[in-house]
C-alpha cells in the first residue's frame, strides 16, 4: 500500500513536470520570436546609424540566449517524459531516441540561421 502510494505520487509529480516543461517550451518560443524581432530592428537601426555595433551584438546575444533556453526546455520535456515512461515501466532506448529526434526535427531549433540573415 505504501509502495503503491509512493508510485502514484511519483507519477503525479512526473506528469506535472511534463506539463511544466511544455509551458516552458511555449514561453521559450515566444522569447525566441521576440529576440528575432529585436535583432531585426537593431540591424535596421545599425544600418541607418541609429545605434552601435554593441547594440547589435547585444540583440544577437539575446537571440542566442533565447535559443539556449528553448533547447533547455526541450531537454526538460524529454527528461520528464522519460521519467513518466520509467515510472510506468515502459522506458526503452528506442522509444526515447524516437521522441528526441522527432521533437528536434519538428522544431529545427537554430539561432544561427536567424543571426546570419
Considering the chains and any ligands shown, give keywords for the structure:
117 residues; mainly alpha; disordered C terminus
Report the helical percentage.
over 70%
State mean pLDDT (0 to 100 scale).
85
Gyration radius (Cα, Å) is: 19 Å
- The tally of domains stands at 1
Termini Cα gap = 59 Å
How would you characterize the largest beta sheet? none
Number of helices: 4
Derived from helix and strand composition plus strand pairing, the structural class reads mainly alpha
Strand content: under 5%
Tally of strands = 0
Q: Helix and strand string, N-terminal first?
A: HHHH
Q: Shape from CA axes?
A: rod-shaped
Topology:
Layout: H1 2-47, H2 53-88, H3 93-107, H4 111-116
Could you describe the 3D structure shown?
The protein is mostly helical. The chain has one domain (2-116). Helices cover 88% and strands 0% of the residues. Helix 1 packs antiparallel against helix 2 (53-88). The longest helix has 46 residues, at 2-47. The N and C termini lie far apart (59 Å).
Write a compact overview of the structure shown:
By secondary structure, the chain is an all-alpha fold.
Amino acid at each position: 500500500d505504501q509502495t503503491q502510494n509512493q508510485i502514484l505520487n511519483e507519477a503525479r509529480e512526473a506528469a506535472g513536470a511534463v506539463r511544466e516543461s511544455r509551458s516552458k517550451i511555449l514561453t521559450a518560443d515566444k522569447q525566441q520570436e521576440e529576440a528575432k524581432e529585436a535583432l531585426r530592428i537593431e540591424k535596421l537601426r545599425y544600418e541607418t546609424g541609429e545605434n552601435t555595433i554593441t547594440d547589435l551584438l547585444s540583440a544577437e546575444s539575446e537571440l542566442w540566449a533565447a535559443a539556449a533556453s528553448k533547447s533547455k526546455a526541450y531537454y526538460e520535456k524529454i527528461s520528464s517524459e522519460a521519467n513518466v515512461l520509467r515510472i510506468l515501466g515502459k522506458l526503452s532506448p528506442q522509444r526515447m531516441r524516437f521522441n528526441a529526434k522527432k521533437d528536434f526535427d519538428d522544431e529545427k531549433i537554430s539561432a544561427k540561421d536567424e543571426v546570419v540573415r
